[in-house]
Amino acid sequence: MPFPKDFLIGAATAAHQVEGNNIHSDYWAQEQMKYSSFAEPSLDACDHYNRFEEDIALMARAGLNAYRFSIEWARIEPEEGKFDEREIDHYRRVIACCREHNIEPVVTMHHFSSPVWLIRKGGWEAETTPADFARYVAYVVERLGSEINYICTINEANMGLQVAQVAKHIMQQMMSAAKSGSSSESQVQMGLNFKKMMENREKLAAENIAAFGTASPQVFTGSRTPEGDILIMRAHQAAKAEIRALYPRIKVGLTLSLHDLQALPGGEENAKKEWDEEFLHYLPYIKGDDFLGVQNYTRTLFDATGSLPAPEGAELTQMDYEFYPEGIGNVLRKVRESFPGELLVTENGIAASDDTRRVEFIRRALAGVEKCVEDGLPVKGYLYWSLLDNFEWQKGYAMQFGLVAVDRKNGQTRAPKPSLSYLGSFTKGYER
Question: What is the per-residue pLDDT across 353-376, written as a single tens digit (0 to 9) for each?
């Protein structure tokens, strides 16, 4: 059966990964360092800042009806308390362009990157950050809220704990990797270079002090303490309160990075513990949200010893994730056991040079989502990651997640892949 008439089918991006020249952000500062953990700097990225009209038109022509993008805090508030109205006008134009093409804008207020001044104040471990974030969100929503129906306050609010978990084991992993060739980086659903990070940490400390005033800047995607984990939830709740005071009709939620956790015999307790850390302990802070942004890329297997690598012989993506499109349907069902609100797939995708594998991934992933809808789960949309081949954080431009290829060496030209029109074909049978 086709998806419901109001079901959202679209794609997603993050500002720093596609816009280019995000010069006031912590990520930009980190990329420029001599001993940076980044494979390369973002520079112009995909120049989406100037080419958003072209990119939105590509989505519309393919049949997509939704676009999730982020507003860059470092552009809006480059200095603490000093806001840039020109940047508000830019995002106003992005939203208007979506509306002109009958595309629903799904707006994310924070997607990993932060203003440098915030990190100099203590970043995502500082008691002042929830109020700073809420002030920024209120400023944006006061000016743009009349044209927005969905806001994700914070992208992958649980990312810091996932990074901390991997970082705790990284030294042991690095020693064993020389023998096995394995890497724990694939346990985190974003592009990180842990090995380079650990090798350069002493030299990088001095550069961090120069940029941020501390050897260990508390950036959003750094290893988070338990106190910092709850601080993220407080920032979300403070932002949500501001949005609801200004525009009660706007649906508000956050997004979480969630794996399809599967227990082999003897692994049940380990899988249960992982699900509590990855999802359940956030429930008191999100139960009042209108929706949850569900983000999944693969599964994780567990036995009595803990998490396991991908099965021998399994197909792996460029990110070294197991090719497992069934994960999203499984995660939606697991989340629904505890979360009462609407569900929106805000990220799901594959990094692959072979676009036929992307098409197959989308086919199987959407089959699982469709079955969830048929079974009565309140799933409201599916937003593929990502619209463009873009800057995959510390891994640079090597990862190909996009529905659209970008030739950055030859005028930033766009080349839609067959997967773009394939995804758009799922909107046929109804009109927005």
Answer: 999 999 999 999 999 999 999 999
